[in-house]
User: What shape does this take?
Amino acid sequence: MKRLSLILSTLLLCSASLASPDSLRAEFIDRMVSEHGFDAAALGDLLDKAQVRQSILDAIARPAEKRLNWGEYRKIFLTPERVRGGLAYWKKNERTLSRAQEKYGVPPEIIVAIIGVETRYGRHAGTYPVLDALTTLGFHYPPRAAFFRRELEQFLLLARTEGMDPSQPLGSYAGAMGRPQFIPSSYRSYAIDFDADGKRNIWDDDADVIGSVANYFARHGWQAGQTVARRVHGASAVSPELIQDDAKPDRPVSAFAAKGIPVDPTLPPDAPAALLALQTDQGTQYWLALTNFYVITRYNHSPLYAMAVYQLADAIKRLHKPETDD
Assistant: This one.
């Protein structure tokens, strides 16, 4: 019986992945009408306006996190220009960043680095209509179509709630929006009106951008004042079973020390950690990633991304001089 159930489940998954874009679209419209009260004709007209873009399908098929090693990936984000830009952004928004840290416990350099990695502090927030991106991927990209249809659903709901014309917002090829590049479900769950002007504007309002990023991290378990990661020096013959590609910290630091990993003595022995192996052209770097590192991966699941954010944040912090009162 279990075998038959497994076969039927597999067949259902296969048939769903082979469904035509037209049938997926019809099913989507029906659900939006029945579950959320949308008008079928109006929603059909809106989806008719969306363009299916081959450039979006090409981009999602070649993410940098899968093409590059850590050394190559690092060079993209750890540049003098991006560090200087982060310092300028911090100075411009000093008091707002301090207020966000006081409320949410997330340090300014982490918030700034996220915005720097995502959009170069708002300069490159995306040129694709979000409607085009989510429609293209939701109906024409079988590997993750179900995910992007859910994001399309969330986008239409937030547009209705926020009073937006859904054909207007621009974002990335994957439908991420604004300076912090929130996908629609993240916008609905974590975007906040940090300056109390009645809007959650993550495109043009730095206060809302900063508050929303801080809220996102706090809601995902950021631990104020705790270590993010530590480089492991002198490790040799590391057993593959100790490496955790997903960076999930599921062993105490003491467990790695017991296996002969040279652990920074300042790390609490009972702190949860994961051992990462990051490849460069010069060899493998080993890092102990703690809970706050894993929280960064909740923004983007790639450990390369999280390490870029962490190191950019550190580089910016080293140059920052706190604002002082006269």
Notes: The radius of gyration is 22 Å. Strands lie at 128-129, 170-171, 229-232, 251-252, 272-280, 283-290. The first strand starts at residue 128 and ends at 129. Residues 4-16 have pLDDT under 50 and may be disordered.
